[in-house]
Write a structure and sequence with these properties.
This protein is of the alpha+beta class. Strands 4-1-6-5 form a 4-stranded mixed beta sheet. Strands 3-2-7 form a 3-stranded antiparallel beta sheet, with no helix packed on it. The protein has 4 helices and 7 strands, in the order ββββαβββααα. It folds into 2 domains: 130 residues, Nucleoside Triphosphate Pyrophosphohydrolase (Alpha-Beta Complex), CATH 3.90.79; 58 residues, no CATH class.
């Protein structure tokens, strides 16, 4: 039996949708493919993502895990002479257009997370995705949380400078209303990350 080292990805867009591949023979998979000689797993995953769905602006979140299954035949069924050892990474992207670069790939599709397992053809692919789908969502949310915290830190100095030079409660009612509006926008943004008033010092 031949064993093929394979790498691929769960890729989520800004809407929380997941990219899958229509292979054109009635089968659907996550973007993935065989490692080339001397190629690192992560490099394989990034190459296969580009070849199968055309995405290049990717942010790696983490490695999700590894599973094994037999190679799929065209149209379904298994080739038990080839065992695939599949390593899956989690990425997020702001890109929306899926444009496969390989001629034998029919299309790339964005699918709601809850619908992914209805598309995936191989039972082992479905089983793996079901096992990690909640973790993948939490990791993306966690990454967005830390990005928001980082943005808040960067806003600190400019906001300090602005409010040290600008009085909010001025006599001009229109100007005062505008500046209070700015404070409300900032307050709502900070509350989306955390309620800092709950911190006890």
């Amino acid at each position: 039996m031949r064993k093929d080292l394979t790498a691929g990805a769960v890729i989520k867009n800004s809407k929380g949708e997941v990219a899958i591949v229509d292979q054109g023979d009635g089968t659907y998979t996550l973007p993935k493919g065989k490692c080339k000689k001397g190629e690192k797993l992560l490099d394989t995953a990034i190459r296969e993502i580009y070849e199968e769905v055309g995405l290049t602006k990717l942010q790696l979140i983490k490695k999700l895990g590894t599973y094994k299954r037999y190679e799929m035949k065209e149209g379904g069924g298994e080739n038990v002479n080839v065992l695939k050892i599949i390593h899956i990474f989690l990425f997020k992207t702001d890109e929306e257009i899926l444009a496969p670069q390989e001629g034998d790939i029919k299309a790339g599709l964005w699918v709601e997370k809850k619908a992914v397992t209805r598309y995936l053809t191989h039972p082992k692919d479905r089983e793996f995705f079901e096992s990690i789908k909640d973790e993948a969502g939490k990791e993306i949310d966690r990454e967005n949380y830390f990005n928001a915290l980082s943005l808040m830190v960067r806003l600190g100095a400019p906001l300090d400078d602005f409010f040290s030079q600008v009085m909010v409660m001025v006599e001009d009612e229109a100007l005062k209303k505008n500046r209070i509006g700015i404070l409300n926008v900032l307050h709502k943004f900070f509350l989306r990350v955390a309620d800092f008033s709950k911190i006890v010092i």
